[in-house]
Design brief:
The chain is an alpha+beta fold and 79 residues long. It contains four helices and three strands, in the order αβααββα. The mean pLDDT is 80.
């Protein structure tokens, strides 16, 4: 698994959960999180929060979701 492959995967999908990334690349959730955090620090990915399909927000089984930040979104943030 290379950081560029994870970048391309999230970019192609538009958004992805941490479980999706870990499963697709057959890596641990911890490894996937480190790779995604690299792209967050580069300003290319943003965290969308946790999703679990429920509105309670307290079970702890929620899955973190991430979205690719396209150049247009980045320009709006800078202005």
């Amino acid at each position: 698994m290379k950081l560029g492959e994870i970048r391309n995967y999230i970019k192609k999908r538009g958004d992805s959960s941490l479980d999706d990334v870990a499963h697709h690349f057959d890596i641990s959730k911890e490894a996937a999180k480190l790779a995604v955090e690299y792209w967050i620090n580069k300003g290319k990915v943003q965290e969308r929060g946790a999703t679990c399909g429920s509105s309670c927000g307290g079970c702890g089984s929620a899955n973190e979701s991430y979205q690719w930040v396209n150049d247009e979104q980045l320009i709006r943030w800078l202005n």
